[in-house]
UniProtKB/TrEMBL annotation:
Pfam families: VIT1. It is a multi-pass membrane protein. Vacuolar Fe(2+) uptake transporter. This is Vacuolar iron transporter. GO terms for molecular function: iron ion sequestering activity; iron ion transmembrane transporter activity; manganese ion transmembrane transporter activity. The keyword Ion transport applies. Its main location: membrane. Belongs to the CCC1 family. Residues 1-15 form the signal peptide. The lineage of its organism: Eukaryota, Viridiplantae, Streptophyta, Embryophyta, Tracheophyta. It comes from the Eukaryota.
Amino acid sequence: MILTGFAGLVAGACSMAIGEFVSVYSQRDVEVAQMKRDRKNAGNNDQESEKEALPNPIQAAAASACAFMIGAIMPLLAAAFIVNHKIRLGVVVATVSLALVIFGWIGAVLGKTPVLKSCLRLLVGGWMAMVVTFALTKWIGSTGL
């Protein structure tokens, strides 16, 4: 279980990082094209200040990968040494729920947004993801795919 969980952690972190890189790089391309059009229309050649405002795809990818790894390691460590399936399931749900609330709080504080709204959004979204993952795992396990 630990090896499979770790493999999922690495694969998920890579997937999140690649997705974030592509997304932010695409946004960067759009912003660069818009800046070129704006400079052409205004006759302005101040490129240095504009470059500082552009998103950094490598930084975004690294942040996304790290966030995924931190989020994935918590339930893995919480469940790694618990033998009883029902207790393990409860511990994982509790650990992940606590982590989701903490991450929601951190995001709200850093983004200066309402804390309760951020925590609830992350908690409900996380619970939905857990239910879908659990259901798919049960379905795949019962059908022998």
